[in-house]
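Hey, I was hoping to borrow your eyes for a little while. No rush at all, and the record is pasted right below.
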Amino acid sequence: MNCHFNNTVIFENNVMSLINNRLTLKASGKKVVLSNNQKKLFICLLNEVNDKNHIIERIWAGKNSKSKENNYTQLIFQTKTLLARCGFPEDTIITMPKYGVCLNMNLLKPAPTDENQKAELLSDQGMFIYDIRS
């Protein structure tokens, strides 16, 4: 899949939007301003470019190999920290050991709006209705 970096990036669904460098979770109203490389990372993840080496090449093409590796590690750490500090779920970006990272795809799914779409959980204590939106 191709990963394009334009001056104006727009991704939007019912749950999340990425407009320029501003990432927004619509349900909670949480917003964060991303650096250019963080924006590039999100574009890669939205385009399902998850492999560490592919992400590195798309963001830092033409730079020294060792610095690319260090830059990647710092970018992932700083992005996760920024998102958590701004109230985004801690698992917005999921690390896949020895492979790369991925976006938590549950964040891209619209929350159920109908009571019938709630998941029902059974236990030995009886039946409970669990709202999967929480």
Notes: The chain has one domain: 10-130. Residues 65-85 form the longest helix (21 residues). The radius of gyration is 17 Å. Confidence is low (pLDDT under 50) at residues 117-134.
